[in-house]
Amino acid sequence: MPSLFKLQNALRDVSLGGDASALAADIIGDGFAPEQRLNVHRNNTTILLSEALGATYSVVKKLVGDEFFEAVARLFVRAQPPRSPCLFEYGEGFGDFLATLPAASDLPYLSDVARLEWMWNAAFHAADATPLTSADLAPVAPEAYGDLILSPHPSLRLISSAFPIKEIWDVNQCSADPEATVNLDEGPQALALLRPKASVEMIELSPAGFVLANQLSEGAPLEDAFFAAQSTAPDFDPASTLAVLISVGAFQSYTLRP
Amino acid sequence: MDHTAHTKRSLVSSIPARAGIGLKAQHYQEILDTQPDIGWLEVHSENYMCAGGPTQTWLSAMRERFPISLHGVGLSLGSAGPLDSSHLKRLVDLERRVEPGQVSEHLSWSIADGVYLNDLIALPYTEEALEVFSTHVLQMQDALKRRVLIENPSSYLRYEHSVIAEPEFLLGVVNKSDCAILLDVNNVFVSAMNHGFDATAYLDQIPADLIGEIHLGGHSQVKIEGRVLRIDDHGSKVCDEVWALYERVIDRCGPKPTLIEWDSNVPELSVLLDEAAKADHILARAAVREEVHHAVAV
Questions:
Q1: CATH at B61
Q2: Coil, strand, or helix at residue B222?
Q3: Measured between CB atoms, does A41 come within 8 Å of chain B?
Q4: C-alpha span between B62 and A53 (Å, rounded)
């Protein structure tokens, strides 16, 4: 008689696509082959987790079609099954996984679109917080601006891609014009995603603006972040990008470098 | 250890003995706009464990208007090894925020060695599993400081080394942990058909005062080499056989909070409300019968 631990590990392996024959002896057939009964559980795990991925990655699903998505999702579910019962947390590695699949190489933007969808999902479920406004910064003396450290809003996510992923995302929403197309030659794109209130917003950033946002979100003081951004593009105006980031609600509080 | 303190809370008063429906995201707006006459709502706890965002805002809006029952699908009380303490903590936090009328989980397991299978799998009914399961129910109740409901599963397989019948196992858990029962009539029917036991005998074994809530849902049938296996997919209306079993339970036990579950191929809200009205009708008749009985007895 197998221990509960051994039995459950064996059934887990079967549900994730493993061979069922070793476990069959422990299952009462009663008119069915034990493997057929075990197959119900393999299907439950595979199909329901693939559906959960399909809900998070609806644009990827639309881009590749249901059949291809199902095949890829099945591979992913078996390679990286969830470690948490909260399925809104499931599938973080899907974009990286797609990047390793030769079958998906015809769509070079696919993995970046998946990463964008993951960030949207993360921003949607992130903690709520009242965004920092420029008025909140009024007490800071101008000579101390360089030492400002802005802590990012919990929902802030940053992504850059060699492809126009926001346009790809836009035209694949339910509400989009079915005739709309995307010119892939539009080139690289950098985005900030955040959810200051109820809905997730996407803000396009210049390459230097992306460096600035990245530096700030990692806790760099303003002076260091400005310097890093300007060194990638000498004519970049960090102050106007900062003003945009603050106005859209990208930060939640500030401290001063000691 | 004192496990009796939390049982003082009444089983019956927490959610009304009326029909409720499972809350689905596609119905949020319509429910708030039309305020349908339903007794209560049930949600899957795990869907609302996020740090923030609109799903929580929706749930708060629902909570202001309806009693809520929190139905867990991820604690995996039947898994060997310790419970996931961080998940239990998230459940406690959600319970504090929502102040639900009931909190329930399943007589099954979903996690093996840290991997979540998103499936409710039957246990081998052994002394070992009874000990593991009951200990986990006690931990859950101690963390929540309340009595919880445990739901009988739909099952597709049984194990050669099972030695206890399912209703006895369930009552054994009640005995060891002082939990109560969420009686899923459709699950009893599905398992009875899949394994060839008598559904009415099973249902009759569950004492009325232990039933804190009832579930009704639809199931599907798959044919494997000419033989039918019933699959509990909550994707259709409650079938006639299950309605008949339900009426029998209510006849015996009196009105109990009754949920209409619908989780796949979710239809228009009106379809769920029609199913709920059907259950409400049966409950209302049973309530009248009780009143008459009391009046005559006085």
A1: 3.20.20.150
A2: strand
A3: yes
A4: 27
B74: containing domain: 5-297
B145: left (phi over 0), alpha (psi -120 to 50) or beta: left
Over 50: is that where the pLDDT of B40 sits?
yes
Name the average pLDDT for chain A: 96
Neighbours of B4 (CB within 10 A): 9
- Tens digits of per-residue pLDDT, B91-111? 999 999 999 999 999 999 999
Chain B residues touching A47 at Cβ < 8 A: none
One-letter amino acid for residue B252 of the chain: R
Residue that has been written with the tokens 């689905």 in this structure: B24
What are the sequence ranges of the domains in chain A? 1-108, 126-258
Contacts of B12 (CB under 8 A, 6+ apart): B212
Q: Which helix (H) or strand (E) element contains residue B227?
A: strand B227-231
What ipTM, to 2 d.p.?
0.94
Low-confidence residues of chain A: pLDDT under 50:
none
* Residue B110 DSSP one-character state: E
Structure tokens given for B250: 């209510």
Amino acid found at A243? A
CB–CB contact A45 B118 (8 Å): yes
Number of domains in chain B: 1
Name the residue type at position B191.
Answer: S
B161 to chain A, any CB pair closer than 8 A? The answer is yes
